[in-house]
Amino acid sequence: MLEEQETKSEWSKREMGAFWTKDGPKGKYLTGNIEVDELGIKKKIRVVVFANKHKNHDRAPDYVIYKSEPQENSNKKPEVASDQEKEQIPEI
Q1: pLDDT tens digit string along 32-55?
Q2: 77 located within any domain
Q3: 59 lies in some domain
Q4: b/e code 46-68 from CB counts within 10 Å (16+ = b)
C-alpha cells in the first residue's frame, strides 16, 4: 500500500497537464492544457493537438501541438487566413 502511494505521488510530481478528445468537423483532436514553470512562476497554457495530415516520411511527427487562442464569439465563423499568413505557417 505504501509503495502504491509513493508511485502515485511520483506520477503526481511529474504531471504536466491533461487532454480530452473532441470531435470536430474534420475529425477527432485533443484539447487541454500544459503547465509550465517559468522562473518559478507556474502557468497553464491551453493547447490543441491535431494529427499531422501532412506526414510524408517516418521522421515527421504524428501529432502537432498548437497554442489555443480564445474564441471571441462562438457564433462567429472562423476567419480564413490570408495568403501572407498562410506563407508564415510551416508545413509539417
Answers
A1: 999 998 898 999 999 999 999 999
A2: no
A3: yes
A4: ebbebeeeeeeeeeeeeebeeee
Residue 78 forms part of a structural domain:
no
The string of pLDDT tens digits covering residues 76-90 is 444 444 454 444 444
Number of domains in the chain: 1
CB atoms near residue 45 (< 10 Å):
13
What residue numbers bound the domain in which 61 lies? 17-71
Q: Is residue 50 part of a domain?
A: yes
Helix, strand, coil share (%) of the chain residues, nearest 5: 20, 40, 40
Any residues with CB less than 8 A from the CB of 67 and at least 6 apart, and which? 45, 46, 47
DSSP 26-45: TEEEEEEEEEEEETTEEEEE
Beta bridge partners of 35: 44
